[in-house]
Amino acid sequence: MKGQENFRNQVKGIYNVLVVSCIMVFLIGILGVIYMVSPSSFSFKTDSPKTEMITVTEEGDEDNWDKIEDGVHLRTGLKDGEGLMTVVNNCTNCHSAQLVIQNRMNREKWVETIRWMQETQNLWDLGKNEEVILDYLVTNYPLLKKGRRENLTNIEWYTLNE
Amino acid sequence: MKRRHFVKRTALGSLAGLLGAEIVFGANMPDNYDLLGLQDPDPFKLFGKDKEMLVLNSKPWNMEAMAHLLDDKITPNPYIFVRNNGKVPEDINEKEWTITFDGESVKEEKTFSLEELKSKFKHYTYQLTLECGGNGRKEFDPPAKGNQWGIGAVYCANWTGVRLGDVLDYVGIKSDAVYIGYHAIDKHLSGDPTKQPISRGVPISKAYMDETLLAFQMNGKDIPLVHGFPLRLVCGGWPASTSGKWVNRISVRNKVHDGEKMTGTSYKVPCHPVAPGEKVKEEDMCIIESMPVKSLITYPKSGAQLANGKKLNIRGHAWAGELEVSKVFYSIDFGVTWSECTLEKPVNRLAWQHFKASISFPKTGYYEVWARAVDANGESQPMLVPGWNPKGYLNNACHRIAVKIV
């Protein structure tokens, strides 16, 4: 009888554990369903384009996120200057800042590029920010004259033993 | 008992929910999630690239080689440039991969699994030169917008696949077919599911060339993910953008394909020469087909200092789009005099050719070794940057390396 009682208690114990774990699994399942229906409800962010890269930082704290060193915005490589954050917030959501930095254009060409992005690449209306962005770009990344062929530069000299 | 059933059922229900959620995670990952994976700070590890490769852009990923990295006759993956218009896809299931042939000019729409494609058609292997249309863009003045490629957006790999022409014959195309356009699974940078990052193509005549492949292997192995796993259209000698990666649909068109980056000014140059900086109307822009003649000195690396009296042995590759390269010359006096290099025949059509020369220098000083290839039609590489065009394509100016004799 006592053995039977013991066995019954053990079964009861296992049963309780099972119930609790089933409830937990059920809750996780519900979370999964919510995730399926609306993935954004898990991303805890107020301004999605700006926050998507936060995961990349090592320190992750606010101070370092937009740190500027030697006149360069570390996170993007863009030069520090008036309008920097407007450029960061509007121009680095779809593509990296490297695409901006590589390119040298006059104001007219930048406007053309912005229109092209708006017409075909889902860039939004920049409103008053457009002027700020254009000023920043032509000031910090001005056109350079290259001529028909430049000198070879950045040559790393080394001794060749043949 | 009833309660136990209930518990059991809900447990299974939530497990199914979990499984369901897992499938959703895999198949339909939210944008920032897949960005996280492919924003890995180490693209070299991510794509198996050499540390000396230059990263031009991390979103989308674009990387190029330097001349000395391209010394191999068949370019190994670590030195192959990376060009993306959209996001690199993830979680590709080769076993479930299909390719559909559709469009106005197919007799009937047909879909093949990858296995069917491999088993139904004969396999061919060719060394094919692929060069980005914008390779050399960085030298244009006034500059053209886009990735500022130097000289390293070119390579020649060994591609294995089936002939696109064989598959088109099997599918059956109508007599009014003029173009094919590819479609692929990569996603637009903006995350907009209705947009394709790129969907280009070639005329039917190019589609039917022996060397135009639907390839499933590169250099004897599965194609690396970033280069189009599991299936890539390879059109050697044409702008590499015609060689669609991750291809799952080919449309046979009764007009010039009008997919993304076929229209507007993309991959087009002025039909008639224009002055630098001139505005060109869209209707005056013509689609680039065969790439122009070009060469690279891949050995030695620029910057070699050599003892006076010693000979310098140079080597490299030359290619000419659809054509064969007939001659390669070098100059050590800034183009005043030219000497001919030894040039090998191509292994197959559209493969780059290898050249070499042994150079003596008259005295100590600063030299530049220039290489200039000439194609079968007698067209040569220019010494200066060629005709300006609004988008900065087709810069085939001769390659230069710096040498000091000390």
Architecture overview:
The complex is a heterodimer of chains A (162) and B (406). With 162 residues, chain A is mainly alpha-helical. Chain A has two domains: 2-42; 48-140, no CATH class. Chain A contains seven helices and three strands. In chain A, strands 1-2 form a two-stranded antiparallel ribbon. In chain A, a hairpin with a 2-residue loop joins β1 (68-69) and β2 (72-73). The termini of chain A are far apart. Residues 43-60 of chain A have low confidence and may be disordered. Chain B has 406 residues and is of the alpha+beta class. Chain B folds into two domains: 47-287, Alpha-Beta Complex (Sulfite Oxidase, Chain A, domain 2), CATH 3.90.420.10; 294-405, Immunoglobulin-like. Chain B is 14% helix and 31% strand. Chain B has six helices and 24 strands. In chain B, strands 5-4-13-8-9 form a five-stranded mixed sheet. In chain B, a hairpin with a 2-residue loop joins β10 (213-218) and β11. Chain B starts with a helix and ends with a strand. At the A-B interface, α1, α5, α6 and β3 of A face α1, α2, β1, β17 and β24 of B.
How is this fold's topology laid out?
The complex is a heterodimer of chains A (162) and B (406).
Chain A: H1 2-37, H2 48-51, H3 62-65, E1 68-69, E2 72-73, H4 84-91, H5 97-102, H6 107-120, H7 129-140, E3 158-159
Antiparallel strand pairs in A: 1-2
Chain B: H1 2-27, H2 31-38, H3 43-47, E1 54-58, E2 61-64, E3 82-83, E4 98-102, E5 110-113, H4 114-120, E6 123-131, E7 154-163, H5 164-171, E8 179-184, E9 201-203, H6 204-207, E10 213-218, E11 221-222, E12 232-234, E13 247-253, E14 268-270, E15 285-287, E16 294-299, E17 304-306, E18 312-319, E19 325-331, E20 339-340, E21 342-343, E22 353-359, E23 365-375, E24 399-405
Parallel strand pairs in B: 4-13, 17-24
Antiparallel strand pairs in B: 1-2, 2-3, 4-5, 6-7, 7-10, 8-9, 8-13, 10-11, 10-12, 14-15, 16-18, 18-22, 19-20, 19-23, 21-22, 23-24
